[in-house]
Amino acid sequence: MAKHETPLLSQLETGPWPSFVSDIKREAESRAKNEKGIDYQIPVDACEDLLGVLELSYKHGRTHWKHGGIVGVFGYGGGVIGRYCDQPEQFPGVAHFHTMRVSQPAGKFYTTEYLKGLCDLWEFRGSGITNMHGSTGDIIFIGTTTPQLEEVFYELTHTFNQDLGGSGSNLRTPSDCVGQARCEFACYDTQAICHELTNYYQDELHRPAFPYKFKFKFDGCPNCCVASIARSDLSFIGTWRDEIRIDAEAVKAYVGGELKPNGGAHAGRDWGAFDIQKEVVDLCPTKCMRYADGKLEINNKECTRCMHCINVMPRALRIGNDRGVTILAGAKAPILDGAQMGTLIVPFMKAEAPYDDIKEKVIEPIWDWWMEEGKNRERLGELMKRQGLQRMIEVLGVDPDPRMVQEPRSNPYIFWKEDEVEGGWKRDINEFRKYHKR
Amino acid sequence: MAFVSSGYNPEKPMENRITDIGPRHFEEFYPPAVKANKGKWLYHEILEPGVLVHVSETGDELYTVRTGGCRLMSVSHIREICEIADKHCGGYVRFTTRNNIEFMVDSKDKVKPLVDDLMSRKQDGGCYKFPVGGTGAGITNIIHTQGWIHCHTPATDASGPVKATMDVLFDDFRDMRLPAHLRVSLACCLNMCGAVHCSDIAILGYHRKPPMLDHEYLDKMCEIPLAIAACPTAAIKPSKIKLDNGTEVKSVAVNEERCMFCGNCYTMCPSMPLADDVGDGIVIMAGGKVSNRITAPKFSKVVVAFIPNEPPRWPKVTDTIKQIVEAYAKGANKYERLGEWAERIGWERFFEACELDFTHHLIDDFRDPAYYTWRQTSNFKF
């Protein structure tokens, strides 16, 4: 017998898509039955009260969580999102309902042994409800009480060799695409760099020292499966700078219809027979491809590596062998100044362990600049807008490069540095008047 | 419920404390076929919706079965995922960047029993637990946020509208009939945690009423300059207020004409709540993408200024999304993302094709860049 009536939420149990309501109800029942005889460390009816408060929100059209909440574990300045219900008497099971962010392994591969261990811990010391995963990448434990935070953290670190993720004005939990683990397009080992930088910058992740939050994301190629270009302050996108490798026989097999374009991604509709001219050559954004006499040619010098031809013919076309990353900076959501995507700051850099160039020539100079100059709650992208891309170039110590702009400026409001101008800026008006009367 | 210690000693909190160990190493969790073939993959194919094969230069094959996940999930559900992975996949499983679940097997004959097992599992209410799909030119999982289940600033719920939308789009999760893949995302306020600003179709929680001011508590609860600095349109200024009991307190004043209800002041100051049952609702955006394929990444654009919150199933939201998906499916060329289609035919045609009203709310008026979104050409379609 459910503790609260949930007529609105119950309507979300029908339909084909997996229902979160059915799932939470199942967990509520499991806790009520407690077949394993667990000594639950937070209220046994936490899941029922969670459904109860959500039903009330469905009725009121408003959230029932109080503003903010500052909780955590000693030694760290983040990792836990405190939350308190604004109807604690009615829903005591969720009076405290804090979220713990648990640092996920790169690539989000798991063994069941590890996941089952985490489930046992969270069932015992929390609500038994999770997010798999948070948008930034963390495993999210949703709902526990303040006294359990240190206990969960102790178990995580001592039993699971596992740390918390980031929250607050710091380096947040980095994340990556599946990369070389299971993708032929990956231009570098996204898991290796994600893991290395996460560990190398643990202090910056656990103890907020920044003007605002800062995120890293690692995409193996310009398809951007982890959306680094839109969702990280520093975006690492794999690329190559030599030639796309062409397997002429496989090209013929695509043209002959033996191989399905785009790995069969469009198989749900009849788009007609594959037409290499129409579907590949004509769609190339730089028109650097040619198909004639049964032969495909690419003028690689003019290729911008958008991935389209490789995506369409994965068995015939492969990424080049001279690989690295393109680095873009400043992506963010709208607040305050408007949304930004990453701006290209490093066209090409090798990405090989231990990644010293990326650490010393990119990340740390940018942090030194932003930590000193960034205003309170100003993202890197906004500092770039306020002080200019020129300042970023100075910080990186690189030469300006036409690859860094979509187009040159159209307004003529050009700043010059005094030492760039012959004779400097100190001038005598009386000297001027000798030749130009008032 | 008796307190059970983990071994942590609150009297000596820093004793035996382990810190800065980070995540577990990814290699501990690679299935053997991944470990053996990492960096050696030659090509892949989508065998059917939800089923991929990757072929390595060693000749090894890895079959992946992708299933929907509702992101918000219980430990019972995760244990069921583990049971499936133990039964079919040697105890390995992974999650995608869109919160789908991937079960991997190393030979083709293991695929069908796995798919059949996944599709046979249903909740009591009848929904699938593990619907197979989410690959190729279809609609995959919806990236979403906390909503009323855990956040204090939302203007709508997340899990509910996502379930309602995925029910409506379910056939496209299981099929690959669209011109290109179509990414849907949701954020319950314009902090846009996740991918709303860069998705083909985006659902965004929005307020339409300025904050209420809890003058009696404001100066006690808030760092007033931070609340003032939080406003993108400078609608907030400091003020002094006389309470009913005659005491004068420091507070803020909001110029309501200049407020566009972003809620960022409430994020900074608990005494400025703005949630409202009838004021709050949903904005629909469209045409964003993150990949660099053919065209550069794009921001999504506002195409519907307001749809009311209609819990539990948000029918107007799901109808509108379905309408956009069908117009796109009908009008776009092969490989063309929704934003590329809209730009090719012109946004004036997009509104016509999708049968959406164009209202003054859709015209940008935020600072200098707004000008560049107006039309400085005589090239348009009647």
TrEMBL record, chain A:
<dbReference type="InterPro" id="IPR017896">
    <property type="entry name" value="4Fe4S_Fe-S-bd"/>
</dbReference>
<dbReference type="GO" id="GO:0046872">
    <property type="term" value="F:metal ion binding"/>
</dbReference>
<dbReference type="InterPro" id="IPR011806">
    <property type="entry name" value="DsrA"/>
</dbReference>
<keyword id="KW-0479">Metal-binding</keyword>
<dbReference type="GO" id="GO:0000103">
    <property type="term" value="P:sulfate assimilation"/>
</dbReference>
<dbReference type="InterPro" id="IPR036136">
    <property type="entry name" value="Nit/Sulf_reduc_fer-like_dom_sf"/>
</dbReference>
<protein>
    <submittedName>
        <fullName>Sulfite reductase, dissimilatory-type, subunit alpha</fullName>
    </submittedName>
</protein>
<keyword id="KW-0004">4Fe-4S</keyword>
<keyword id="KW-0408">Iron</keyword>
<dbReference type="GO" id="GO:0051539">
    <property type="term" value="F:4 iron, 4 sulfur cluster binding"/>
</dbReference>
<dbReference type="Pfam" id="PF01077">
    <property type="entry name" value="NIR_SIR"/>
</dbReference>
<dbReference type="GO" id="GO:0016002">
    <property type="term" value="F:sulfite reductase activity"/>
</dbReference>
<dbReference type="GO" id="GO:0050311">
    <property type="term" value="F:sulfite reductase (ferredoxin) activity"/>
</dbReference>
<feature type="domain" description="4Fe-4S ferredoxin-type">
    <location>
        <begin position="294"/>
        <end position="322"/>
    </location>
</feature>
<dbReference type="InterPro" id="IPR045169">
    <property type="entry name" value="NO2/SO3_Rdtase_4Fe4S_prot"/>
</dbReference>
<dbReference type="GO" id="GO:0020037">
    <property type="term" value="F:heme binding"/>
</dbReference>
<dbReference type="GO" id="GO:0018551">
    <property type="term" value="F:dissimilatory sulfite reductase (NADH) activity"/>
</dbReference>
<keyword id="KW-0411">Iron-sulfur</keyword>
<dbReference type="GO" id="GO:0009337">
    <property type="term" value="C:sulfite reductase complex (NADPH)"/>
</dbReference>
<dbReference type="InterPro" id="IPR006067">
    <property type="entry name" value="NO2/SO3_Rdtase_4Fe4S_dom"/>
</dbReference>
<dbReference type="InterPro" id="IPR045854">
    <property type="entry name" value="NO2/SO3_Rdtase_4Fe4S_sf"/>
</dbReference>
UniProtKB/TrEMBL annotation, chain B:
<dbReference type="GO" id="GO:0046872">
    <property type="term" value="F:metal ion binding"/>
</dbReference>
<dbReference type="InterPro" id="IPR005117">
    <property type="entry name" value="NiRdtase/SiRdtase_haem-b_fer"/>
</dbReference>
<dbReference type="GO" id="GO:0051539">
    <property type="term" value="F:4 iron, 4 sulfur cluster binding"/>
</dbReference>
<keyword id="KW-0408">Iron</keyword>
<feature type="domain" description="4Fe-4S ferredoxin-type">
    <location>
        <begin position="250"/>
        <end position="279"/>
    </location>
</feature>
<dbReference type="GO" id="GO:0009337">
    <property type="term" value="C:sulfite reductase complex (NADPH)"/>
</dbReference>
<dbReference type="InterPro" id="IPR006067">
    <property type="entry name" value="NO2/SO3_Rdtase_4Fe4S_dom"/>
</dbReference>
<dbReference type="GO" id="GO:0016002">
    <property type="term" value="F:sulfite reductase activity"/>
</dbReference>
<dbReference type="InterPro" id="IPR011808">
    <property type="entry name" value="DsrB"/>
</dbReference>
<dbReference type="Pfam" id="PF00037">
    <property type="entry name" value="Fer4"/>
</dbReference>
<dbReference type="Pfam" id="PF03460">
    <property type="entry name" value="NIR_SIR_ferr"/>
</dbReference>
<dbReference type="InterPro" id="IPR017900">
    <property type="entry name" value="4Fe4S_Fe_S_CS"/>
</dbReference>
<dbReference type="InterPro" id="IPR036136">
    <property type="entry name" value="Nit/Sulf_reduc_fer-like_dom_sf"/>
</dbReference>
<keyword id="KW-0411">Iron-sulfur</keyword>
<keyword id="KW-0004">4Fe-4S</keyword>
<dbReference type="GO" id="GO:0018551">
    <property type="term" value="F:dissimilatory sulfite reductase (NADH) activity"/>
</dbReference>
<dbReference type="InterPro" id="IPR045854">
    <property type="entry name" value="NO2/SO3_Rdtase_4Fe4S_sf"/>
</dbReference>
<dbReference type="GO" id="GO:0050311">
    <property type="term" value="F:sulfite reductase (ferredoxin) activity"/>
</dbReference>
<dbReference type="GO" id="GO:0020037">
    <property type="term" value="F:heme binding"/>
</dbReference>
<keyword id="KW-0560">Oxidoreductase</keyword>
<dbReference type="GO" id="GO:0009055">
    <property type="term" value="F:electron transfer activity"/>
</dbReference>
<dbReference type="InterPro" id="IPR045169">
    <property type="entry name" value="NO2/SO3_Rdtase_4Fe4S_prot"/>
</dbReference>
